[in-house]
Write a structure and sequence with these properties.
Length: about 290
């Protein structure tokens, strides 16, 4: 199972260069596509899901060009879009049965598959309740069940944790990790904690470009010895934030303790601090921000 993305760009009709010369190869495991809003994550996912075509470059699944042969991708793809919506008056089995029919799954096979999926996503207990009363997290789990109807080799989930409470977020992460054991799972998010403990690999996007692809550990290693903590007077906080990527602030009696990335000791009272993925991420974004449009 391998998805090859080679020098892919996507420019929308209005001239927006949403994806710029992205190359990436992904295989089994959970791959986190991390980037701020507007970075191009959704567009890249739509390109992979064959919902839009690149302006340049090629995308191949196990060697087959999916722009020329979208059906080859769609057969093995599960896609959870950002704006996944449910029919509020249906129960989860009714909704999934309806979606299975739309996807052309034979009725007999669909029934058994839906029971298995409700169990996988932890909605077996609420199978008789209508979806309108589900929490955001429960609805997203219905979305994942829907994306899994065809037992896909590639599962693409576009910002699935937006709007979920912390408990649901953790539950959703665990679910995606389990699903990534025998397939490719591509998860986009702008929240570092969604991917820091679970992703086997991270692809970081900013302003349409891929700025890094590596394991979370490798990224963290890149800022080792460059992370500091020190206390600054409240009046100087603005200047410090302008100068360094600050990932944590704690208010203390004598000022504000900042946790920030800097190549060299930023102040005489600064001491080295253990690096986090958030440090690595913000540092990368600050290095690559504001390229010309
Ligand atoms: P992300 O998912 O990282 O938030 P998107 O792929 O949604 O990023 O958006 C990347 C850029 O492309 C943004 O500037 C966005 O406004 C723009 N964009 C997205 N969809 C369209 C579209 N259909 N037409 C024109 N511009 C778009």
């Amino acid at each position: 199972m391998e998805l090859h993305i080679d020098n892919v760009s996507k420019t929308y009709g209005d001239g927006t260069r949403a994806v710029r010369d992205v190359s990436l190869t992904v295989s089994e495991g959970l791959i986190g596509l991390l980037g701020p809003n507007g970075a191009g994550k959704s567009t890249l996912m739509q390109l992979i899901a064959t919902l839009t075509k690149p302006t340049a470059g090629t995308l191949r699944w196990n060697g087959t060009d999916i722009v020329d042969h979208p059906a080859a991708m769609r057969r093995v793809l599960g896609y959870l879009p950002q704006d996944f919506g449910v029919y509020p008056e249906l129960t989860a089995p009714e909704f999934l049965d309806y979606m299975a029919a739309l996807k052309g799954l034979p009725g007999d096979a669909a029934g058994a598959r839906i029971d298995t999926l409700l169990d996988i996503v932890g909605l077996e207990d609420v199978r008789d309740r209508v979806l309108g009363g589900f929490s955001g997290g429960m609805q997203q789990r219905v979305g994942i069940a829907c994306a899994l109807l065809n037992d896909p080799d590639l599962l693409v989930a576009d910002e699935p944790t937006v709007g979920l409470d912390p408990e649901e977020r953790v539950r959703f992460r665990t679910l995606l990790t389990d699903l990534a054991e025998d397939r490719v799972v591509l998860l986009s998010t702008h929240i570092v904690s969604d991917v820091e403990a679970t992703a086997t690999r991270l692809a970081i996007m900013n302003d349409g470009r891929l700025t890094a692809t590596s394991s979370p550990k490798t990224l963290i290693d890149q800022v080792r010895d460059c992370v500091w903590e020190w206390v600054v007077p409240r009046s100087e906080l603005g200047t410090v934030r302008d100068r360094y990527p600050v990932t944590k602030l704690t208010h203390e009696s004598d000022g504000v303790r900042v946790h920030a990335v800097a190549d060299q000791q930023p102040a005489t009272n600064a001491s080295p601090a253990p690096p986090t993925l958030e440090d690595a991420y913000l540092s990368l974004l600050s290095d690559t921000s504001t390229p010309p449009r």
